[in-house]
Amino acid sequence: VEATVRADRSERLAVGAATFGVELAEAASAAERSAVDAVLSNHGVTPARRPGPRTDRVEISSASIRAERRSLLLPGLHSLVDVAGWASPAGLSYLAEQLGLRPAEVWGVATFYDLVPTAADKEYTERRCGDVICGSISGTGPDVGDSAAAGGAGGAGSSSCLGQCDAGAAVLQKVPGTPYAVQRGASGSAAPTRCGAFDAQSAPAVGRVLARVLALGSVTSFDDYLGAGGGAGLVAAVHRGAEATIAEIEAAGLRGRGGAAFPTAAKLRGVRAHVSSPKYVVVNGDESEPGTFKDRILMERDPYAVIEGAMISALAVGAERVIVYVRGEYPDAIEAIRRSIAEFAARGWIGPNRTVDGAALEPLQIEVRAGGGAYICGEETALLNSIEGHRGEPRAKPPFPSDHGLFGRPTLINNVETLCHQVEISAEGAEVWRSHGTPQSPGTRLFSVSGKVEHPGVYEWPMGVSLEQVIRAAGGRVAEISAVLLGGAAGTFLAPERFGLPMSFEGTREAGVSMGSGAVIAFGHSTDWADVAARISRFFAHESCGTCVPCRGGTHQIEKMFQRGWTGGRDQAERFDHVARAMTDASICGLGQSASLALGSMLELGLISGEGQ
Amino acid sequence: VLWGSNARAAHPIFFHHVLKGITNGARLIVIDPRRTESAEFADRWLGLSIGSDIALVNAVCHELVATGRVDTEFIEHATSGFEAFVAHLDAYSPEVMAPVVGVSASAIRELAAEIGSARKLQLCWTLGITEHHSGVDNVLSLINLALLGGHVGRLGAGLVPLRGQNNVQGGGDMGALPNRLPAFTAIDDPVERPRWEALWEAPVSPVPGSHLSEMFEAMTEGSLDTLWVIGENPASSEADADQGRAALANLDTLVVSDIYLTATAEIADVVLPALAGWAETEGTVTSSERRVQRVRAVVEGPAGARSDLDIICEVAQRMGHLWLNRTPESLWDELRSVSSMHGGMSYERLEANDGLQWPCPHLDHPGSPILHDRLWDRPVTGPRAGFTMVDWRPPRDALDDRFPIRLTTGRRLDSYNTGVQTAAMASPIRGGSELDVHPQDLKTLGLADGDRALVSSRRASVEMVVRSSDSVSPGEVFTTFHFQDSVDVNRLISADWDPKSGTAEFKATAVRIEPTSRADAPSGGGHGEG
User: How far apart are CA A418 and CA A310, in angstroms?
Assistant: First the structure.
């Protein structure tokens, strides 16, 4: 009997070792254990498994205690990766035990995220950005075939867009014992991202949401922030009151800047209408759309404004807790947001007993959560699932987050840039804000300009500016550009004859395109379009979460079409159309619905055809 | 409330529905001596000491009555015996019962408060309730608890015995009980019995037969000399296994019909290979919720194997009864012609409705999703539901200085009962037959995780590997009964049975644990301490 038991144990380890191709430890290391313990204690959460043997004959728990514990799953995975460089089976088992989860549940979530190397891919030390800008335009990313050979998971050494598109050749580095770090412009020295603001006449302007960034370069202390006019939005909102603040935002006509352009005031009202607590505010800082890096700039250089915007939202809807979910590939942004929250708390603006400008406010808790490296988590309901410690798969809508959001509670979820505009509106009033842009698309917005331009960077423009103005101001010469990809990988290719298109909601809607997240990627005449198509198709095949069959299968079918070389035959074109239509009609979230847009527009423009292949 | 049930491991499909309920906001209370896998999902786990169920239920009832958390209107309207019951509860205050249950009086009060605040309460139980010397009383006490809050006969509330197989309910419904005819007709009922006699054109003895435990006693005495076992494996599953096997060996003739060559089949004089009930034969099964469902033969069974019905008819024929044209459906229709609760369940309707829940007396009847809704009729249809006065008594297999530790047994997720159907399947998560012992006890016993130990009861000794686990409490140990080949745990267990149900006291055995080096090696099949 004894031999059986002993053999069982070692046999189990041997089977595991054969499966994963690595030596397995029977128990988590001391470093892994203390890293996980720290995550729980930092969040004030008691582990499911208390130290020492249980002797009590009664234990009390609740759905909310279990949910709160489970929500520490992704932070726990990050902590394991930070100390060990990967999430080892023993570390995962320990985490599962502490969180009161089944090992299979933990494994299911761990393997969902690119930034959580499990046994199979634990040898990663760095991943180069392999998306269209670093790859096709700068030619500094890995070859498109690299990852295909490695088979999924982005391929060994390659990553989806890292949001450093202005510098090129970005590399995500992982040194065990330290958190992830991003090296910009790894092939040479990269200057910080260039920022600018322009008025309707393409003349340099002070900027609205970029004003402090342009004046100070970067806001690094609370005092600098206040000195540069920060805090005025929250103070105004406190004195104005919740209803009037929402009314002001409604009057301003602010619409979401994450891509969906939903009226911000309507969301605020939706959450405010729920009388029971708790209610939550979630900041969507999971900027992952290829070619988009404007939210990174706001979070890195004006993090206080992001938090101020979230505090205005919390005040308006009556939320008691804010979670800022930042892309895991943005370590600097995570650090800046974390620091600013600490400073706000130190000044008594956040916390259980807080006062702002002499007014006592309801308690408010704000914390940062780092994403796990999954594009899909930019989708709001996938993001909520990710925070809750589930795989970041989108939920069916309705119910919308404003009714059934984080932990099933009413939740306001806004994009980073949207919140910063909200601060401006609250501080200066709707009238001032409406003096920019067009009547139907008031205000300004940020464009992430990259690719075949002299000065890639983040630029603030009044809405209604033409695409050509945006390109020219970044040092792009229309004659040298054969097409622009507007809105990122989920966007549309536009030929030069359409560069006069006004960048307003009404203008783009009439033209049947979308500004999306405001990514503007310019492609020169020497572009290898087959390579671009292959990278875009691979991006979606890798990032599809697999919830909806049409997207799970379709993105891979399309990837194969473009990976093997587009023949241009009628059969293939028809097949592409069929798959694209199925994905558009039958996927529950924007990823599947838009995954064929850019490729479809490439085919329409004749950028890629079967000729010569 | 899961009371004496580790549904997560033993009823994983049912538990899947429990999880859905939890996700939708239901609260789960688990009452179990062990902190089981099920308890990990619970809002409240109370680890009562083994065999103290009635003490706890009565104390909870005491508290509910004392604090007025009872449905007075329902009690007055639909029950009987409440006053006497309340008087009976006098002796069961939480303070007095706390030491018996092993938790504080306030823990009992909190449990009562939570149960008393439930709008809809489901009390689910399994063998942790029934496999005690007081098994029937345990169930009766839970019925009292449900009646106090009016948690019967309403959608979403009720008493839910979780069945161990797909057709435990059906077996009882069809009369596979020593004192019942089909449809629970009492065998000595002078009005009902003649209807069956007329149908069968044969007299039926009004004297109840023997239940399983009595049969084993009769075999031991020699008064029962021929046994036909259909789809059971008593050589492995009986309590006091040594005695049980001796009883089987004492038979003149042992016949076994089974789909496997079980341990019982191996010692049989005649083995009749049977078709599997699932997928190889036609018929019906009845689930825990009284839902009669069709089962169909969709694959051909192994050559030579025959359905139970075929085997029985063939034996009848050899005994001179020509039972011609007996098909599952004709037998079913015969039952329907007398059993009113099945009257409306033609095969056609069962198929069209994906099963029907009895009672379903006629062809236009939709079936009865709720059995006791009559209690809410005004006035009550039929008899009132009675409170029963039940008393707690300690397990029969008493603890003393020589046998100071309480052993209980149960199932693990990937194994089923005696392992006949599961042992051959590989499972990556299968544990062995270790004895779970609390780390404190291990230390006291001078044992370490993985050590071998001799576990002795008043009946026998078996060698086991101990495993350090705080899922059990100090003074209590746990193991499974899946692995008789390595650890024949049923040899330890008392065959002393509940006089009301005939079920042996599987769940509360007094044992002693010693390191093997210090103890004598077990002497084979000896009866040890007798």
Answer: 10
Which ipTM score applies to this complex?
Answer: 0.83
Q: How far is A71 from chain B (nearest CA, A)?
A: 15
- For A484-552, the three-class secondary structure string (H helix, E strand, C coil) is EEECHHHCEEECHHHCCCECCHHHHHHCCCCCCCCEEEEEECCCCHHHHHHHHHHHHHHHCCCCCHHHH
Q: Which of B43, B48, B451 sits opposite A60 (nearest CB)?
A: B43
| Whether the predicted pLDDT of A584 surpasses 60 | yes
Interface test with A, best of B465, B476, B479 (most A CBs within 10 A): B465
CB contact under 8 Å between B432 and A8, yes or no, is yes
Among B109, B442, B470, B517, the strongest candidate for a mutation testing the A interface, having the largest count of A CBs within 10 A, is B470
Name residue, tokens 């890195």.
A300
- Give the Å distances, CA to CA, from B154 to A64, A484, B74, B131, B520: 28, 65, 12, 28, 57
Question: How does DSSP assign A248-276, residue by residue?
Answer: HHHHHT-B-SSSS--BHHHHHHHHHT--S
pLDDT digits (tens, 9 = 90+) for A513-545: 999 999 999 999 999 999 999 999 999 999 999
Question: Residues 6 or more apart from A56 whose CB is under 8 A from it?
Answer: B47
What's the whole-number average pLDDT of chain A? 90
Q: How far is B204 from chain A (nearest CA, A)?
A: 51
pLDDT band at A121 (very low <50, low <70, confident <90, very high): low
Q: Which residues of A touch B100 (CB under 8 A)?
A: none
Is the CB of residue B413 less than 8 Å away from at least one CB of chain A? Answer: no
Q: Do A57 and B474 touch (CB under 8 A)?
A: no
Asked if B31 and B43 touch (Cβ cutoff 8 Å), the reply is no
b/e per residue, A506-525, with b = 16+ CB within 10 A?
Answer: ebbeeeebbbbbbbbbbbee
- CB-CB neighbors (< 8 A) of A12 in chain B: 428
B44 neighbourhood in chain A, CB within 8 Å: 58-61
Which residue bears the tokens 């009690």? B75
Residue numbers of chain B with a pLDDT score lower than 70: 428-431, 517-530
CA distance A351 to A359: 14
Q: At what angle do helices A30-42 and A73-84 cross, to 10 degrees?
A: 140
Identify which of A2, A63, A100 has the shortest CB distance to residue B450. Answer: A2
- Contact at 8 Å (CB) between B342 and B336? yes
Q: Two tokens at A265?
A: 């005031």
Q: Residue range A357-364: average pLDDT?
A: 94
Mind telling me how many Å the CA of B388 is from chain A's nearest CA?
A: 28
Nearest one of A172, A180, A169 to A138, comparing CA atoms: A169
Give the predicted TM-score (pTM) of the model: 0.82
CA angle A593, A594, A595 (to 5 degrees): 105
Q: Which of A8, A12, A53 comes nearest B440 by C-beta?
A: A53
Beta strands in A279-364 (DSSP E): 280-285, 321-326, 354-356, 359-361
C-beta separation of A70 from A99 below 8 A: yes
- Residue B181: the pLDDT is 94
* Contact flag B432-A6 (C-beta cutoff 8 Å): no
Question: CB under 8 Å to B125, separation ≥6 — which residues?
Answer: B2, B3, B4, B5, B138, B139, B142, B160, B161, B162
H or E element: which one contains B221?
Answer: helix B212-221
On whether the CB atoms of residues A372 and A390 are closer than 8 A, the answer is no
pLDDT on residue A550: 96
Put simply, the chain B residues between 41 and 100 with a CB less than 8 A from any chain A CB are 41-49
Residue numbers of A between 31 and 60 with CB closer than 8 Å to B:
48, 53-60
